[in-house]
Specification:
Radius of gyration: 18 Å
Distance between the termini: 46 Å
Structural class: alpha/beta
CATH superfamily: NAD(P)-binding Rossmann-like Domain
Number of strands: 7
Strand content: 5-15%
CATH architecture: 3-Layer(aba) Sandwich
Strand order of the largest sheet: 3-2-1-4-5-6-7
Order of helices and strands: EHEHEHEHEHEHHE
Bound molecules: beta-D-glucopyranose
């Protein structure tokens, strides 16, 4: 850790989908830990500007950067912008993701492709570009690894999810992408891991917590007895990209209050 006690002091980061929800919390947490942060957004620059302002208000360094992560040229431009502003990139949190829910019989090809394009192809493009940039720059004294990547996955990389086959398939894909890349680039000093959040209170799952009935139903699936907050995930991300996790690569850190523990089997089965 740096003398300031901030584990990411001097490091340069990029967080995709950082204008809201988990991504915004991760961006702020990385900045608090000392990193300069590229705050990627797709639409709605005001929200990204607010995250940047929040980081700057506590003395951090941040840059808003627009890009559609499913667009190859956009992704390259995004990395160019972050590199131009910060001089290098040490950390990427590939977080951008979305849901387009439908029963399988009703799911349109557009819903399928829309989710796979952002959640899986977007991760591929961001991971590939991160590896290229890490390999092209000198190693640094600010971190033991040459570069660190966190892919934002979901408990649904493992828990099947009726009515959300596109989403679950995308997250299962992210897991094999992450593990395969981890195996491939570990020898180059690059670490890559997943965080698999459970039910975290954000706009993406508002339907699951915005009424008392929905909340009660959701809590039955969470042994720890509370819905997660974006900061629960953000703290895990800071740890995963810090030197404290230097021997951790190719793994998934579940941040889910036990949701992936088959809670329906607690007292039965
Ligand atoms: C989904 C949320 C859901 C949670 C737990 C997440 O990956 O985006 O909508 O509440 O998984 O099921």
């Amino acid at each position: 850790m740096s003398p300031s006690g901030r584990p990411l002091e001097g490091q340069k980061a990029l967080v995709t989908g950082a204008s809201s929800g988990i991504g915004a919390a991760v961006a702020v947490a990385l900045a608090r830990a000392g990193a300069a942060v590229g705050v990627n957004y797709h639409s709605g620059s005001e929200a990204a500007d607010a995250v940047v302002a929040q980081i700057r208000s506590v003395g951090g360094e941040a840059l808003p950067v627009r890009a559609d992560v499913s667009d190859e040229a956009d992704v390259v431009r995004m990395y160019d912008a972050v590199h131009a502003a910060f001089g290098r990139i040490d950390i990427v949190v590939a977080n951008a993701g979305l849901q387009k829910d439908a029963a399988i019989a009703d799911m349109t090809l557009e819903q399928w492709r829309g989710v796979l394009d952002v959640n899986l192809t977007g991760q591929f493009l961001c991971v590939r570009e991160a590896v290229r940039r890490f390999m092209a720059q000198d190693t640094t004294l600010v971190s033991r690894a040459r570069g660190k990547i966190v892919c934002m996955s979901s408990v649904h990389q493992q828990i099947p999810w009726g009515g959300h086959a596109n989403y679950a398939a995308s997250k299962g894909g992210v897991t094999m992408l992450m593990q395969s890349v981890a195996q491939e680039v570990a020898g180059q000093g690059i670490r890559i891991n997943n965080i698999a959040p459970g039910a975290i209170k954000t706009d993406i799952n508002e339907d699951a917590w915005d009424t008392p009935e929905a909340r009660e139903k959701l809590l039955k699936l969470i042994p720890y007895g509370r819905i997660g907050a974006p900061d629960d995930v953000a703290r895990a991300a800071v740890w995963l990209v810090s030197d404290d996790a230097d021997y951790v690569t190719g793994t998934t850190l579940f941040v889910d209050g036990g949701m992936s523990l088959y809670p329906a089997f607690r007292d039965n089965g």
